[in-house]
Design brief:
Chain lengths: 112, 110
């Protein structure tokens, strides 16, 4: 079956870049997503990338996709304390009417 | 721009009680779904719907029912609450590419 894996924790200093990595298994995934969850809040869609793209940039966010290795990364430039949150990688699959399969989330801690 | 609205935000139930979690979206999306979030496990799909009148089971459907009488609403019913259903529940609505989530319902079953 499909599976999405992420590292559990990342700590960076304010102003540095953060890179959160994710690997997935379903080679038929059409879209891959990054969500942000702040404490006690819902999931906020940050960005998504089509599987036929290698890179997508959106302001401070850069998504890189290596389809051959099934590896997805999210780079946050000039990381701020407000970026501290849990970041979830998700892949869109054809199962269950195109459900999303989520990783367990990466906790990003930004130190000032 | 409401997006996906879930109610209530918090709920405490006694074992054996039933309740309905409400979800509404105003984006005219056909696909809606319910997930539960448990620590260290990401989100797991409970039920989903690909349009009004059509629902189906996800990965962890036991103990839950859904219905979809309108495009906008997708309520989740807990039939007889159990402590194992203590979790945070998220409703999601998906268009062609983007999937949006509600703010979540934190449910505790005692």
């Amino acid at each position: 079956g499909e599976d999405v894996e992420q590292s559990l924790f990342l700590s960076v200093r304010e102003g540095d870049s953060s890179v959160i990595n994710c690997t997935y298994t379903d080679s038929s995934s059409t879209y891959l997503y990054w969500y942000k969850q702040e404490p006690g809040a819902g999931l906020q869609l940050l960005t998504y990338i089509f599987s036929n793209m290698d890179m997508k940039q959106d302001q401070r966010l850069t998504v890189l996709l290596n389809k051959k290795d099934k590896h997805l990364s999210l780079r946050i430039a000039d990381t701020q304390t407000g970026d501290s949150a849990i970041y979830f990688c998700a892949e869109g699959t054809e199962e269950y009417g195109n459900k999303l399969v989520f990783g367990a989330g990466t906790i990003l801690r930004v130190k000032s | 721009n409401a997006g996906v609205t879930q109610t209530p935000k918090f709920q405490v139930l006694k074992t054996g009680q039933s309740m309905t979690l409400q979800c509404a979206q105003d984006m005219n999306h056909e696909y809606m779904s319910w997930y539960r979030q448990d620590p260290g496990m990401g989100l797991r799909l409970i039920h989903y719907s690909v349009g009004a009148g059509i629902t189906d089971q996800g990965e962890v459907p036991n103990g839950y029912n859904v219905s979809r009488s309108t495009t906008e609403d997708f309520p989740l019913r807990l039939l007889s609450a159990a402590p194992s259903q203590t979790s945070v529940y998220f409703c999601a609505s998906r268009g062609a590419f983007e999937a949006f989530f509600g703010q979540g319902t934190r449910l505790t079953v005692v």
